[in-house]
Design goal:
The protein is α/β, with parallel strands linked by helices and about 350 residues long. The chain folds into 2 domains: about 1-105, no CATH class; about 125-340, no CATH class. About 25% of the residues lie in helices and about 25% in strands. It contains 5 helices and 22 strands. The strands form 3 sheets. A 7-stranded parallel sheet has the order 5-2-21-19-17-14-11, with no helix packed on it.
C-alpha cells in the first residue's frame, strides 16, 4: 500500500513539474510588471514576446489559459494595452471631453458661427469688381477707390473725370485714384469677354435677389419704407416702395449671417447717415437689390453690396464699403470706396 502511495505521489509531482515546464507557460518569463500605473515606458513589457505578439496579445492569451489567481495580472495587461485602470480611462475620457469642449467653444469666429438669414447672392465674376457699370463711371478729385473697376459694353472714354487713365491700355490700365486695375470693353483680349461675363453675372445676381420668395419681413418699418433708427436682424426684407433712412441703420448678426433687401423703388440714404454693422456682421453678406436708383447722401457711411437697375450716386464725401454694381452708371464726388 505504501508503495502504491509513493508511486501516486511521485506521479502527481511529475505532472506538476510538467505543467511548470510547459513551453506555453514560459511565454510569461520575460514579462516584467510595475505597480506604477502612471509610468508606461520605463517598466513596459518586453516587446520581444514569443510568437511576435505584443504584451496585450500575450495577456489575453494568458487569460484563456490556467487561472493564476491574480487579478493584478489582468489589470496590468489592461493598463499596458489600453491606458490605465477604469478610473484612469474615465479621467482620460473626461479630459478629452473637456478638451473638445474647449476647442469648440472658442468664441464667435466665422468658422463656428452658423449662418442665419437667406443664402447669399452669388455675384459670379461681377464680384471681382468694386465698381462695375454698363454705361460709365465718373469721379471728381478727392475720390479714392480700393479694388478693380470696369465698364462694359461701353469703352474706356466712359471712365471719366479725375481718373486720368494711363495710356496705352493693354488688357487693363491704371489710375492715380484707383488702388487696383481699370478694365473697359475696348481693351485687349480677354478683357472684353471677361467683362461681358461679369455684366451677365451682375444681371443674374439682380434677378436672383429680386426673385427670392417668402420674405421674413414685408414693408418693415413704418409701412412707407422709412427704416431710420432700426436694428435689423438677418433675413429677407421686401418693400413695394422705395426705402430711406435719414440718420442711422444697424445690422446686427454673426460673421456668416445674410441680409437681402428687396427695394421696388429708390434707395435714399441721408446726409451723414451711417450703416452700422454690429456683432460680427460683414458688408460682403449684405445685399441691396434696388429696382430704382441709389443715392448716398453727403458724408454718409454706407455698407453692403449695391445691385441697382439704374444709377448709383455718391454725394460729396460719402464713404462706401461694399460693391457698386449697376446696369447704368456710377457717379462719385470725393468719395472713399473700398471693397469688402
Amino acid at each position: 500500500m505504501k508503495n502504491i502511495l509513493i508511486v501516486l505521489i511521485a506521479s502527481l509531482a511529475l505532472g506538476a513539474v510538467a505543467c511548470i515546464d510547459d513551453p506555453k507557460a514560459s511565454q510569461f518569463d520575460d514579462i516584467s510588471y510595475t505597480t506604477d500605473i502612471g509610468d508606461t515606458t520605463s517598466d513596459s513589457p518586453d516587446t520581444d514576446a514569443p510568437n511576435g505578439d505584443d504584451i496585450g496579445d500575450v495577456l489575453v492569451g494568458a487569460d484563456t489559459g490556467p487561472d493564476t489567481g491574480s487579478d493584478a495580472d489582468l489589470d496590468v495587461g489592461d493598463d499596458a494595452g489600453n491606458d490605465a485602470d477604469d478610473d484612469a480611462s474615465n479621467d482620460a475620457g473626461d479630459d478629452a471631453d473637456a478638451s473638445a469642449d474647449t476647442s469648440t467653444d472658442t468664441g464667435n469666429d466665422a468658422g463656428d458661427d452658423p449662418a442665419r438669414g437667406p443664402l447669399i447672392v452669388d455675384l459670379g465674376t461681377a464680384g471681382d469688381y468694386v465698381i462695375l457699370a454698363s454705361t460709365g463711371i465718373s469721379a471728381t478729385v478727392g475720390t479714392t477707390i480700393v479694388g478693380d473697376i470696369g465698364v462694359s459694353p461701353i469703352a474706356s472714354p466712359a471712365i471719366s473725370g479725375a481718373f486720368a487713365l494711363a495710356e496705352p491700355p493693354t488688357t487693363f490700365t491704371t489710375s492715380p485714384i484707383v488702388t487696383g486695375k481699370v478694365y473697359a470693353a475696348n481693351f485687349d483680349a480677354p478683357t472684353p469677354d471677361n467683362l461681358l461675363t461679369a455684366i451677365g453675372a451682375m444681371a443674374t445676381a439682380f434677378t436672383d435677389a429680386a426673385g427670392r420668395a417668402t420674405p421674413d419681413f414685408v414693408e418693415h418699418g413704418d409701412g412707407t419704407g422709412d427704416i431710420d433708427g432700426l436694428d435689423l436682424e438677418p433675413g429677407l426684407y421686401k418693400w413695394s416702395t422705395g426705402v430711406e433712412f435719414a440718420n442711422d441703420l444697424t445690422l446686427t448678426g454673426g460673421a456668416n449671417d445674410v441680409w437681402i433687401f428687396q427695394v421696388a423703388g429708390n434707395l435714399l440714404v441721408g446726409s451723414d447717415a451711417i450703416v452700422t454693422l454690429a456683432g460680427n456682421a460683414q458688408a460682403k453678406n449684405v445685399f441691396w437689390q434696388v429696382a430704382g436708383n441709389a443715392t448716398l447722401g453727403s458724408h454718409s457711411d454706407f455698407k453692403g453690396i449695391l445691385i441697382c437697375m439704374t444709377e448709383i450716386v455718391m454725394q460729396t464725401g460719402a464713404k462706401f464699403h461694399g460693391r457698386a454694381l449697376t446696369q447704368t452708371a456710377v457717379t462719385l464726388d470725393a468719395n472713399t470706396v473700398t471693397q469688402p
